[in-house]
Specification:
Number of helices of chain C: 14
Chains: A mainly alpha (about 280), B mainly alpha (about 280), C alpha/beta (about 325)
Shape of chain A: globular
CATH class of the largest domain in chain C: Alpha Beta
CATH topology of chain A: MetI-like fold
Oligomer: heterotrimer
Largest sheet of chain A: none
Order of helices and strands of chain C: HEHEHEHEEHHEHEHEEHHHEHEHH
Largest interface: A-B, 105 and 104 residues
CATH class of chain A: Mainly Alpha
Structural class of chain A: mainly alpha
Order of helices and strands of chain A: HHHHHHHHHHHHH
Number of domains of chain A: 1
CATH architecture of chain A: Orthogonal Bundle
CATH architecture of the largest domain in chain C: 3-Layer(aba) Sandwich
CATH superfamily of the largest domain in chain C: Periplasmic binding protein-like II
Number of helices of chain A: 13
Strand content of chain A: under 5%
Number of strands of chain A: 0
Distance between the termini of chain C: 55 Å
Largest sheet of chain C: 11 strands, mixed
CATH topology of the largest domain in chain C: D-Maltodextrin-Binding Protein, domain 2
Number of strands of chain C: 11
Helix content of chain A: over 70%
Strand content of chain C: 15-25%
Chain lengths: ~280, ~280, ~325
């Protein structure tokens, strides 16, 4: 594995390219971040904290975190199970299902909201079932969970699938030959191998869940104290001209994202170290 | 050998139960909801979809969405490849930091990204005001949409190309350089061919992501019907205005685009795997 | 975890325990009036009289959107919307079973008028409806599909034209439609709600915004710079409120909901509304605020245009006056 060519050729073309790339990244990524930090400073940390400690802000953040945790767990388990099922099993329709699980990446969040609204709302396919069960999905917590699960579905699956594909079945075959039971194979061989990929996928899942906006807005309705997540809170705060609250929550989510980013980078480094 | 192992796996805890669970999960969480959109979209038949799609606002929104996504995909293909190239082949002090930064749009909520852009380029700001006066409004205009899309999808090409570049042995490039090839020739003749599938795959992902984008665009674009209203925001408006059939009809179009792109990616992956094996 | 408990259990508890929950579905503009004014006042009132805490869940959307959301499954106990047809829609869906237009105020909770908001100092010199049709003037008004304010705006312009308050000849329907079309031709952005429209205006878009008087006052309260113009002829806005019987009963909160709807027309609540720019329905309280709310030379109501049923049929239904005006506006610019 060679990352850097031994003879570094810093021709003029390369330098120009280098500068172009740096300027591009800085302008596109750093400037907006900087502008927001500047705005935050201008609004004043004091008022920011005060707004963030208000009960509706706290509840919104709680809700976002709960949704992210649920998504991480449920789609983490799904990612492992589906990763194994799609990569190690052979059955009819496997590829179709695999493709299906990639769909959430290309489906617009508003369509997610519409789809579940159609199913669980008035006149929906599942409405009679919900009536009987006295269960509410739309404009309620379960709706938010379902929306979040949809949009975060592929992340863990993709990471785990990739690793399982790369590693091949040799280790597991060897263990099988040595007489290990399928459960032992999974626990002792497969799981440790996908540990990193799992962590990476879960981190992406949490980041995506915290950032979900469109689907959660449509399906939940941003009802304060009930279906108001961090992102919809920002939206509502902006509409109420409560800039300190909006920027405060945006800052919290941005900081959380950056922390998750650092976790991702750390995991990447571990991956590289283990590969060498 | 594989048969036996497969049978062994299928018998265990990750066996039939897991398969059934996975299938049911996907069925209820993905397939049925998407089917609901298709069903409602076709409530007026194919004619209904046509009618909804050719209405001036919807038609403009779809065209706007597709061309801004396409333009942005091309820019990303170029800049993303360039970025990956620089980060992998020519690291410099601080490039690690930049590499981390590239993943930022992946982590940040799209709504926050939109707010950041408005904070930077809004007409009330110094920069934004200057640009608006000089006839290049960013926020609440089409350039804003493209900028937002660039931000959101920037990591996709880089992440697709980077691992492939890492795997590529620089020996070939050095050989070409020794033989007197200029850097650009080396790039186009030696480096590009093997990474092309990755670039294509990354670009397609970019495009798909951009077409679906809502959170940042709804903040930045101003949502002016017939000018800066994109398809997802149009669908949102129709959902809120309680016109689910129209919303579903336009959604069907976006769904077709998404499925088409998915198939294209799959085909590319096959090609890529074939090349790897060769 | 308290959050999930709250969502499921509190509604089922109804009369037991020390905490009640009331879900309010309102339109966009009164969020401050309710959020920081009327609701805390009611919570205090209920606590004093019943020794219980009332927790509020609030949702603020464009009036039309909110009305459809309630019909579509959003279980609001009380609906406080911008115009009567949006409550009628809920009633016709079978969710309001008791007559809601009873009482001294016929189910209305607040009033306002349609005004034209402009930049400080009125640099473009906008004085009345006709000025919105001058070349180069950019106007903001929301989307009638989702926003109640948008419907009031259209009714105001059309009604004023019909009554001779504009350049259009009095009683000339075709001329009134033409005027409405001209105004619509100057609209640059149609947001989904009145509040969103104001925010767009504040971001530097548009020279004039057709909006509620109370919205302009609320914006000024928030420190935004506005001036506004009261046209010679404009419409009196009346905002309804009603208990959504089916949901309130389901949640076991009918008593709280009824009390809330009663409370909003008490002088105390009416003063809260006035503080946020709403003209009180209570005439006595209104008399305290004549300085704040100037008289309008020709103030007409929906009853002068028929009634809301007729107005919706004539103006807002598919192919009606609004559609015709909008279509004619697409041609010009």
């Amino acid at each position: 594995m060679h990352r850097v060519s031994r003879a570094k050729r810093w021709g003029r073309g390369t330098t120009v390219l280098l500068v172009a790339v740096i300027v591009y990244l800085a302008a596109l990524l750093l400037l907006p971040l900087g502008a927001m930090v500047a705005q935050v400073v201008r609004t004043g940390f004091g008022s920011l904290f005060r707004e963030l400690l208000a009960p509706d802000a706290v509840r919104a953040l709680e809700l976002s975190i709960i949704l992210a945790v649920i998504a991480a767990i449920v789609n983490g388990i799904f990612g492992i199970a589906a990763g194994i099922v799609f990569v190690r099993h052979r059955f009819l329709g496997r590829r179709v299902l695999d493709a299906l699980s990639d769909m959430p990446l290309s489906v617009s969040p508003v369509m997610v909201g519409l789809a579940f609204l159609l199913i669980f709302g008035r006149g929906g396919w599942f409405e009679p079932v919900l009536q009987i069960l006295h269960f509410k999905v739309t404009f309620a917590f379960p709706g938010l969970v379902i929306a979040t699960l949809f949009v975060t579905l592929p992340f863990t699956l993709r990471e785990v699938s990739y690793v399982l594909l790369e590693l091949g079945e040799e280790e597991e075959e060897a263990a099988a030959i040595l007489g290990a039971s399928p459960w032992q194979i999974f626990w002792r061989v497969t799981l440790p191998n996908i540990k990193n990929a799992l962590a990476y996928g879960v981190t992406l899942t949490v980041a995506r869940a915290l950032g979900e906006f469109g689907a959660v807005l449509i399906l939940g309705g941003a009802i304060s104290g009930k279906t108001q997540t961090g992102t919809t809170f920002i939206n509502v705060a902006m509409e109420e001209r409560r800039e300190a609250a909006a920027y405060g929550m945006a800052l919290v989510l941005a900081v959380a994202s950056v922390l998750l980013l650092l976790v991702l980078e750390a995991l990447k480094k571990v991956e590289i170290k283990e590969a060498d | 050998m594989k048969r036996t192992f497969g049978a062994a796996i299928a018998a265990g805890p990750m066996g039939l139960g897991a398969r059934v669970g996975v299938v049911l999960y996907l069925l209820f969480l993905v397939l049925i909801p998407l089917a609901a959109i298709v069903e409602r979209g076709f409530a007026g038949g194919v004619g209904g979809i046509w009618h909804a799609v050719v209405s001036p606002m919807a038609a403009h929104a779809l065209v706007l969405t597709l061309w801004t996504a396409a333009l942005m995909a091309v820019v990303n293909a170029v800049m993303g490849t360039a970025t990956a190239w620089i980060l992998v082949r020519h690291p410099f002090p601080g490039s690690r930091f930049l590499a981390t930064l590239v993943d930022l749009p992946f982590a940040i909520p799209t709504l926050v990204a939109g707010i950041m852009l408005v904070t930077l380029f809004g007409p009330q700001t110094a920069l934004g005001g200057w640009l608006t006066v000089h006839g290049v409004p960013i926020v609440f205009a089409t350039p804003g949409i493209i900028l937002a899309l660039l931000f959101i999808t920037m990591p996709l090409v880089v992440r697709a190309v980077e691992p492939v570049l890492i795997e590529l042995d620089p020996a070939e490039e050095e050989a070409a350089a020794t033989l007197g090839a200029k850097p650009w020739t080396t790039f186009f003749r030696v480096v590009l061919p093997p990474i092309l599938p990755a670039v294509a795959s990354g670009t397609i992902q970019c495009f798909a992501r951009a077409v679906a984008e809502f959170g940042s665009v709804v903040v930045v674009s101003g949502n002016i019907p017939g000018k800066t209203l994109t398809a997802p925001v149009y669908i949102f408006g129709e959902v809120e205005g309680d016109r689910p059939v129209v919303a579903a009809a336009v959604s069907v179009v976006l769904l077709l685009v998404a499925v088409g792109l998915l198939l294209a990616t799959r085909v590319l992956q096959q090609q890529f795997v074939r090349r790897e094996r060769a | 975890m308290a959050l999930i408990d709250g969502a499921y259990v509190a509604h089922a508890q109804g009369g037991k325990g020390g905490q009640r929950t009331l879900t309010l579905g309102a339109y966009t503009t009164p969020r401050e009036a309710y959020g920081s004014g009327v609701i805390p006042a009611f919570q205090k009132f209920w606590k004093e009289n019943h020794a219980q805490e009332v927790r509020f869940e609030e949702s603020y959307l464009g009036s039309g959107a909110q009305s459809r959301a309630i019909v579509g499954g959003f279980e609001a106990d009380v609906a406080a919307l911008s115009l009567e047809p949006d409550i009628t829609r809920i009633a016709e869906a079978g969710l309001i079973k008791r007559p809601w237009k009873t009482g001294p105020y016929r189910g209305m909770v607040s009033r306002s008028i349609v005004v034209i908001g402009v930049r400080p100092g009125n640099p473009k010199g906008i004085k009345d409806w006709d000025d919105l049709c001058r070349p180069g003037i950019q106007v903001l008004t929301p989307n009638v599909r989702t926003s109640g304010g948008a419907m009031w705006n259209v009714a105001a312009v059309f009604g004023a034209a019909l009554r001779g308050g504009t350049s259009a000849a009095k009683g000339d329907t075709a001329a009134a439609v033409a005027l409405l079309g001209k105004v619509l031709a100057h609209v640059t952005v149609m947001d989904k709600g009145a509040r969103e429209s104001m925010l767009t205006f504040e971001r530097g878009i548009g020279d004039a915004i057709i909006t509620y008087e109370n919205e302009v006052m609320e914006a000024k309260l928030a420190g935004r710079a506005y001036d506004y113009v009261i046209p010679r002829s404009t419409i009196l806005i009346e905002n309804p409120i009603a208990v959504v019987d089916v949901y309130a009963e389901k949640h076991g909160g009918l008593d709280v909901a009824d009390a809330f709807v009663q409370f909003v027309t008490t002088p105390e609540a009416q003063r809260e509304f006035a503080a946020h720019g709403y003209r009180p329905v209570d005439e006595k309280v209104a008399a305290e605020f004549t300085q704040k709310f100037p008289a309008v030379p020709d103030l007409f109501t929906t009853r002068d245009l028929g009634d809301w049923g007729q107005i919706v049929k004539l103006i807002f239904n598919e192919g009606g006056i609004y559609d015709r005006a909008l279509n004619s506006s697409q041609g010009k610019k």
